[in-house]
Every structure is written in C-alpha cells, then in structure tokens.
Amino acid sequence: MLLLTTNAYKTLAMSTKSTKEKLMEEVTIDLLKTKVDSANYVAFAKQERPIQDFINKYYFDVNLTGFSELYTFGDFPFYNDKGQVSPLGKTVLTVLTSDVRQWVKEPRIYVKDNLAYIHAVKLDGLNILFTLKKEDDHWKVVNREEKKLPTVGSKVILEKAFLRAIGPEILRATKTYYGEERLFESERIKDITWDENDDTYTITIQIITYEGPIMPPFGFDTITLQIPGFEVLTYEHKDVSGIDKLPLEFD
C-alpha cells in the first residue's frame, strides 16, 4: 500500500512482511513519560489494529510486493540503450506534463515487469496514483485515483500557528538587530522555499516592531531564516513611524 503524503512528505519505502506484521499487531496501552520544563507529564498511547476505513483514508490500497525498482522523477531512466526515449519513459512524461504539471515533490515511479505506478502530489496536496500496464510493448494508463489527506482547511490558521510556534526565534532575531528585544505584531510569511536535497527551508517573515504598549518607533522588518537552526540569513528594516496611513491587515 502507498501512504498518502503532504508538503511534509517523507520518502516512501516498501515495507517488509515482518514490518507489516508488527504494524498490525494489537498493542496494549503504553505509558509514555516525558520530562518537559522540569515537570513530569504522563501521556497514554493506544495502538489498535488498522481497519479498512483507516487504510482507505490514508493509503492507496495497492500491493507493492516485488516492486524492487523505485525511481524519483530525477533518476528515472527515460532513455533506452539506443539513446531513445523508452515506451515507459514516454508514458511517464506524458502523464506528468499533461496531467500533474506541477508537484510538491518529485513523483515516485514503481516498476515491476509489465506493471508500473506513478505517485504524484500536487501543490494543493492532492495525491494522484496512476496505474500503468504494458501491452504489446506500449505502456498505457489503466487507472487514475485521487485522494487527499484530511488537514486544516484554513491556510491562515496554519500560518498563525506556525508563527506562534517560532515567536521566540523572531524575538531573538530582533534582539540581534536592535540590541534588545522588540515586541512585534502583524507577522506574516512572505515566502518559503524548500531545498529537497538538504531538507532545509528558507522562510521570509515580515513583522511590525514597536516599543512599549504599541509605541513608536515602528519598524517594518523583513527577516529571512533558515530552518532547521533558525539562522538569520538577512534582516531588512524600514522605519515607518512617520507613515500616517491605514495599513493592510493579514486577517
């Protein structure tokens, strides 16, 4: 089975029989103890046998047993020994350029004898699974299935939750620039990019800084951070204390 993926997409791996058996085992309640801020918190976790509804919700129900060939778009062998685009290569290119077009991460291609799967995730998080079969040296799509993971519908809420979580890092960046921590408001994410090879994110945030109970001087600051590590790559400041206009609001 193929696990559905999102922007937090992890590399798919083919499970061995023993791994699947372990996942399917009934596990009694485990007691997990975590020490947070010098206080002991006790959490209860319960694992249950996955039912078909769970599989239908989070997986493409296909059997990957024997699929020893797994490629990403970047390492897929599109050309044959003669330097020509192979029949499978042509079909893969046609599917990805005419249907998927843009994806959040390189599509995965699974190949076994006369059967192949293409798993792609579009920018909106839509998972698409294409089933290809080889007939008379030609590959054709015989099935197309779409699924999407349940997630928070509001991008604004997701952004606010993320900015709330990294608030201390933003304060730390303002302290480095101003020499002291500055309070801020109207925070928003201007841009975010992902380096798939290094698994790092470059995120640009804009904030309005102020002193005291929302008193000037006001700063319109643009901060670019790299995650993980929260290294400040650039910090740009504009003094907007003298602008007597109505600012745009994020939400």
Write the layout of secondary structure elements.
Elements: E1 2-3, H1 17-24, E2 27-36, E3 39-47, H2 52-58, E4 59-60, E5 69-72, H3 87-100, E6 108-112, E7 115-121, E8 126-135, E9 138-148, H4 155-165, H5 167-178, E10 183-195, E11 200-211, E12 215-227, E13 231-239
Antiparallel strand pairs: 1-4, 2-3, 5-6, 6-7, 7-8, 8-9, 10-11, 11-12, 12-13
Task: Give your account of this protein's structure.
The protein is of the alpha+beta class and 251 residues long. It is 21% helix and 43% strand. It is built from 5 helices and 13 strands. It has helices at 17-24, 52-58, 87-100, 155-165, 167-178; strands at residues 2-3, 27-36, 39-47, 59-60, 69-72, 108-112, 115-121, 126-135, 138-148, 183-195, 200-211, 215-227, 231-239. A 5-stranded antiparallel beta sheet has the order 5-6-7-8-9, covered by helices on one side. Strands 10-11-12-13 form a 4-stranded antiparallel beta sheet, with helices on one face. It has a two-stranded antiparallel ribbon with strand order 1-4. Strand 6 and strand 7 form a beta hairpin. The longest helix has 14 residues, at 87-100. It starts with a strand and ends in a 12-residue tail after the last strand. The model is unreliable at 6-38 (pLDDT under 50).
